[in-house]
Batch of 3 targets.
Target 1
Amino acid sequence: MIKKEKSFIMEQQDKKLREQLSKIKHKILVMSGKGGVGKSTVAVNVAVGLSLQDLMVGLLDVDLHGPNVPKMLGARDLKLSRKPDGRLGAIKYSPNLKFLSIEPFLPSEDTAVIWRGPIKHSAIRQFIGDIDWGELDYLVIDAPPGTGDEPLTVAKTMPDAYALVVTTPQEVSLIDVKKAIKFCQKIKLRILGIVENMSGFICPHCGKPVDIFKKGGGQKLADEWGVRFLGRIPIDPRIVDTGDAGKPLIAAYPESTTAKAFEELVRNIIVATEEMKKDILEEKFMRIAVPISSPSKIESDPEKFELFAIYDIENNKILVKDVVKKAENQGLIDFLKEQVATHILLFDPPKDLADYISQNEIKILVTDTSTESPDNLIEDFLKERQLH
């Protein structure tokens, strides 16, 4: 009885999550391999910058142990709103920007959060599913440093999110950023691009840049890993004061060199998200699911669709392959949506199944053999595409 009740509660939460996420066009996880790279500063200024482009934006702080977003926005006194249906709404910062962090739920701003992984996982899911964010063009998520529970939960909850990786130019930061990139590849989180923060220092006396932390490391890393380089953000002495005063620099000093660098970063992010969306529409990027009965055999019986090989393909090359088991009692479409599958490869599918899948905007690839291995079937499909 308890198990059934828990299952029902989870199903309801999953339903609310799907409903909310369907209203958000683009999700951007701002992450880094290490602390101290100015990741929250980037997240806050990017969110404010996007909102100044007349876009509807949400900013979610999932750094549960050290939330900085309310302080950096100067919005610690703002409260969550109550919607007519009884749900809590995200905190309104401006007409185009809403935000949320753990801080409004704590007894005091200096309360220590001492939580293990499962509780953090549940809290982040509730921040999205139980809070009414409304329709958003962008949801910017500020994660704590590293590759732990928080970014992993975001990636699993929002598998169509993009990672915006923040680094500083020096070698010690770049080493850790490589780990963040590998983390994204491992969990199949598409990388939007790399931002090089603290890229030079704007002298307050002469206004000229000084490369105190080197320069160009982020660009070099992006070229090395084949990901976009989205921009350099120089240090402005006022960025500390604006952060402490709760006035994001991009809005407080719009004529400054650093604010203009943030504006360029925001423009590059908008272009990059549209390009990545276009890549899916034009099938430059595909995530193909193949039901399997064993690693070397495709499953032909829809009643036995439990295990799937998932292939990430970009520019006709397999980036990564993973084997994933569908949860018990989980519907096929729910599973495919959860995996952000763009295609499914099937052997001689029944018409009603094919129609059902197509209606849910997942493209069907049909094979006329059930004896060829899934790897070979995918390779043959890619070769056929190249010929055309």
Target 2
Amino acid sequence: MEFCAVISELNPFHNGHKYLFRKIRELGFEHILCIMSGNFVQRGEAAVFHKFVRARHAIENGADAVIELPACFAVSPAELFAGGAVHILSALPNVKALAFGCEIDNKSEFLRTAELLSREDKAFKAALKTHMKDGNSYIRARNAALLETGADIDENFLSTPNNILGVEYCRALLAEKSAIEPLPILRVGSSHGDTAQNGEFSSSSAIRTAMSAGDKKSKKFLKTALPDGVFAETADFRQIPYRQAALVSLMRAAREDVAATPDCSEGLENRLCSMAKTNPDYDTLLSKVVSKRYTLSRLRRILLQNFLGVKLKDVKEYLDSPLYAKTLAVKEENSEEILASLAGNIPLIARKSDYTLLKKDALDCFSLDLRANDLYNILTGTYTNEFLTIFA
């Protein structure tokens, strides 16, 4: 049994994800494996539904199995997010392709750009440093440095979030020397982050905004934008009091611990901790610190990384270590064959007894997943067993 993988958040699962699954099968892949962020996501927030619910939604809408992207990678910047997911997928013997949505479905262009970015010669590093000093975010500075040093790429190619993430997936595949084939698939509907309600194929941002609004118009929109089963569960959606918890965690943290998070640098921990004292509101605090260089998503991630206890040093070590594949949900039909096909060079964690297979860095990495699950349970007032696997 061979799989096409999808690196995902499914926050929540919507018609665009269902479209991606359909295109994967049209391209000849019979089985789909999702590696999905758990209860906290890369935009620096708690997920709108529990990871087991979102994993079940994926199975109900066409995936064969869902494994968890460890929390340390799920809440890290794009390079580490992509690197962690590809690191795990490359250790599974039957993953043959990696599909991702993008604005330009040109595999050669993705691989060529990834190779150029991976070289990082002296001229590139000098240009990168200059653009960072000018106050640009890392991604913008990196892209500007690439163009400045004469790289033959289309500037528009690196101007959209999905293409940027697709390049990071390809960089990670090259770094792992992976045999997995990149499979870019043209997106339909709204662009990433578009908050406008755009019918059947609307962005996750627009859908989350509508879920929070909860009015009659929003519910009508959600019925159009979501598969029926997912829409039915939006009736039970409640805001998760994560933001207050994140501020409390920031106020009690040692500044050196905040500085050790993957997204923090250049003394940013001092500004965040100082401003939190006089701006004890999540959105107000971030509005005081955000800038061209320190984007809102980056600041939100720092607070989340601190809340979970994610350290850059640890994440880099995990990238160089054998880890694990933790199953969240599996298609009930052929479940034994699916699980057998996922068994590879790293432990498959499908039940509590499998936990004993973990050693050293893998054990530390999984301990963070346990903590993230426990914290989400407290925030939502629910109990879920971390070692559960859903069969749907």
Target 3
Amino acid sequence: MKEIRSIMKSGGSLVISLPKEWVEVRGLKQGDNVELEIAKEAIIIRALSLEKTRRIMYLKYHGDMTYLINSIVAAYLLGYNTIIIEMPRTVQDLFELEFLKIKNKLMGLEILEYIGNKLTLKVLVDPLEVQPIDIIKRMWQISRESIEDSITSILEEDVQLAERVIQRDEEVDKLYFYTVRILRSCADDPTLQSRLGLTNINLLDFRVAAHLLEDINDRASEIASLTEEGILKVLDKQFLERLSISKTLLRDNHDDVYRIFFNHERELLSSVLERIEKIKVELTLSRLTYRELRIYEGVSMISRMQYDLAELSWIPIIKK
């Protein structure tokens, strides 16, 4: 909601009044402190009392552990720093077992303490120390390695390499969840967004990029999961030769798309499109087995998502 208010003079200062409804909802009164954040041409006013309570989520166990775990993930993604859970002592051991299954995907979330029938989880990572752009770049690097290693595991029948690709997917999931958490927090907290130096376009582009990179890594893991002893005997020789060419094309695309996204080198987009078309030609054979078709679909989806990443690049309007 937007309002236009007049600037008034009070003593030697210029002042504006705060909207009555906003003050009442937050329970503010004369003498309370508010936080001012100067962000270029805007001044952000935040009620400190609301900031304190907004970052604490209270949950209660009602007999459904799956629902409780999902609620914890939701609270984490929504940006809550502290999660206080009320549960009987008799289910706390079960909770710890279930929590361990998701803990590695939720960066910085730890069990802080047990007091009676209450358990406290807290996020111990400072969002100002882990920049979203650095996380996106790390996801880019891991997904590049996964693309190359997944196809190499097929071509060289390397089961151990395939297993490493699949294990690496957990790290990407962790980075993805943390990115979503930070970007959602920024959307809800303009002060944090300002401190991180992010624009609204950054929030949108980074959110989509993180999703695409996580999905690319999933597709690479699916390709790697097809690797098994004896796989080379059941794949057509011509298909393997073309798959090797496609691996190089995907790798080069990933590098170029990185430069398009971060450096705005949009002239590279035509090369990306040419490689995508070449991948289609290389892997389009008159006949494909079920296993070959699954590999082809994985490679094709990765190439399409690489193009989607490239399309996120934008050129600022230059004022003449």
